[in-house]
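Hi X.,

You mentioned you wanted examples for the new student's onboarding notes, showing what a folding record looks like when two proteins sit in one file. Here is a clean example. The first protein comes first, with its sequence line followed by its structure tokens.
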Amino acid sequence: MARLSFIIRIAVCVAFAVTFLIAVGSRLYYVQIVRNKELISKARRVYTTVASKKGERGRIYDYNGNLIVGNIPCADVMADPKMTGDDKACAKAAELLSKCLRMPKSEIFEALATKKRGDRDIRYKAVRKELTLDTAKAVEQVIAKNKLKGIFLEEKTKRFYPKGELLSNVVGLTNSTDEFAKPINGIEKAFNESLTPTKAKSVYERDRKGVPFAYGKKQMNQERNGNDVYLTIQEPIQAIVEEELETLVKDFKPEAAYAIMADP
């Protein structure tokens, strides 16, 4: 009787083990064979990132290569309102960022807490544009120290005029946009197609910290800077002309004044 009971227990244990192995094997087959492509696709979506980079707008030089218009680095403070939390979290972030951004807390709060435009979710919004690198670093420290969610910095460049207003009516001005600088007038507008850089998107697989894998899917594209433009104008001569015109206007107050300085 004891022997029969022992055999039954062994048989039950074996049956249970076989059933367990069949269940595990069936599950592994289902996951690794049947759903293989689906799960690989999902995993790649999690670990695959798309990085966009754009080149710098072309510089403008005078005849001798003196820089008239260039670019300097800056940063935009951006937000994903879907990630910034509830009104309490947005109010806290606004209070922490207000001092270094030199903005009213109410404006920052509105940017972080407004999560919809009509029926559409807002996932990308500018809080403050074209910060200096020192200010951007201070903002970055506040974000990291207080673990603020949904707020990040985007590096970019803005136009820089080392000679001040010299040739301003000739080179023209640009407006900053989310994509590229929008020319308003002058050389900036006339040669906009040549000055405009290209934007490149790179697709790669990365780990949790954002470091690209040495293996796996990778498509790296290279952005291109805009072409530089060289003028026939010489900066020292132009400076003399503008100074003389300014003196003339100040002394005689004409409705308009023009001057041409040429090498005969």
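Then the second protein repeats the pattern, sequence line and then tokens:
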Amino acid sequence: MEISTVCALLAAVCGVVGTVPYVVDTVRRATVPHRGSWLIWSVLGVVAVESQRADGARWSLLPLSVQALGTCVVLLLSIRLGSGGLSGPEIGLLALAGAGVVGWQTVGEPVIATGCVILADLIGALLMVPKAWRDPDSETCSLFVLASLGGAATAGAVGLIAAPLLIYPGYFCLVNGSLALMIACRRGMFRSILGGGAMRVAAVMNAATTFSAGAHRVRRFRTTRDRRPAR
């Protein structure tokens, strides 16, 4: 099996494994998706699949199809269970993202077209940042971790070194990794990990100190006993 095929399958698995918990958390109302973000990502996903299919894509089409399906499911759920998407600034950003999608489809230069996609996708990410910053528990962090890994795997699925084809997967990996890092930091995950590690180190040091003190007392007792005069 070729490496590009393996990477495509890995990216598809990351998409499924990341989206399913997000959907479950949304249904349970533990996660609150931003409507504007998922609208942009759904449109981008569907258009990307159609564009890749028209260009004769093969294995790289698999992760894109999985991603598009997942984003559309979340979008449908967000209509009733989500938040955002109706304020003036948000509508303005949605219009700018729409312009990015139009530019992607009309510009003939691949690098510029990819830049339009990145602009639209980045706007989708920026729309959800204020909500995720205020309430990090309203997002499922694992989705963005796996999306970042999926972006890296999608880059491997391209199968050749070509800037227009690698720029977007690289961006996708970076932006989702950044979102995951922000959510984790706001939740204090790293503080908990570091704090727990510090407590374990302190416990080990305390045990070592206790053992050392006990050993010292044993040595002193033996020395005192050996120095006693014989009767």
